[in-house]
Amino acid sequence: MLIFSNALFDYAHQVKSLGNTLFELLSEALGLKPSHLTDIECNQGQVLLCHYYPPCPQPELAIGTSRHSDGGFLTILLQDEIGGLQIFIEDQWVDVAPTPGAFIVNIGDLLQLISNDGFRSVEHRVLAKNVAPRVSIANFFGTHIDPTSTRIYSPIKELLSDKKLPLYRETLASDYIKHYYSIGFRCENCYFSLPVMNCGM
């Protein structure tokens, strides 16, 4: 067990480093200085979840993981060769084929909010079609580790102008977390359900 724990902590450390690099690249893609997203602590609140899906000989009777988008800033996913992950794009579900040695990176709802739609979160699901056990490891960067946070999130001011108005109201992190978990996976499109800014208000 100790060997497994050490390996898991080392893995989490390496993925945190990868996340920091990705946040630098995403900052630059938005036209900001490379450290901007880490300066506002998007790389904090790291949560690592290991998923195990047992063999499913009757997939028509199983749910898998239903349609949803991730609530944080960024998700780095490692999946095995079994597959089953799908993303929703252009009104259809598309398989995400496993690629040995590759990670899957998902934009989360909070990054959509602060980037003012510069980046869009992606709906996804997992089908229970595996005839062998399926394992995946998801690393989430977000605020969900601290539901008492007093941090406020809103579109980044440097991304706004007279021609690019804010699309979302500012939101308290704790309120956002409550909202996200109150919705859960039950809505057909919980892709992004924070209040949209009414520019006439």
UniProtKB/TrEMBL annotation:
InterPro entries in the cross-refs: IPNS-like_FE2OG_OXY, IPNS-like_sf, Oxoglu/Fe-dep_dioxygenase_dom
Domain of life of the source: Eukaryota
Signal peptide: none
PROSITE patterns: FE2OG_OXY
Metal-binding listed as a keyword: yes
Domain Fe2OG dioxygenase: 44-144
Keywords in alphabetical order: Iron, Metal-binding, Oxidoreductase
Cited Gene3D superfamilies: B-lactam Antibiotic, Isopenicillin N Synthase, Chain
UniProt-recorded Gene Ontology molecular function terms: dioxygenase activity; metal ion binding
Family: Belongs to the iron/ascorbate-dependent oxidoreductase family.
Protein name from the UniProt record: Fe2OG dioxygenase domain-containing protein
Organism: Triticum turgidum subsp. durum (Durum wheat)
Lineage, broadest ranks: Eukaryota, Viridiplantae, Streptophyta, Embryophyta, Tracheophyta
